[in-house]
Design a protein that fits this description.
The protein is of the alpha+beta class. The protein has four helices and four strands; from the N terminus they run E-H-H-E-E-H-E-H.
């Protein structure tokens, strides 16, 4: 499974519906699981981003499908980062000079 960090900011619509966010998060997790993904954590944050989600997906295609689905709700705008675990550094094959 590939690892993704999804940074989210609430839209105006998302702010208006924030009281229902617990259910929206649960629904999004279920949707991602149906696609073969796993949401390992969702965090309300302070600072530049309103939410941060840590997710695993079997492919980039599954991850982007999920992110587009999140954006289509109109509640959040996303910024997705593909992350690599420390143990994969040797597999990537770069040389540190």
């Amino acid at each position: 499974m590939q690892l993704y960090i999804i940074l989210m900011n609430l839209t105006d619509q998302g702010v208006r519906t924030v009281k229902g966010s617990t259910q929206l998060i649960a629904d999004a997790k279920k949707s991602f699981e149906r696609k073969g993904g796993v949401v390992t954590g969702v965090y309300l944050t302070m600072g530049e981003w309103d939410y941060v989600a840590i997710c695993e997906a079997p492919s980039d295609e599954v991850a982007i499908s999920f992110v587009l689905e999140l954006g289509a709700t109109g509640n959040v705008r996303t910024h997705t980062i593909r992350a690599f675990r420390p143990e994969t550094i040797g597999e990537i094959g770069f040389v540190i000079i």
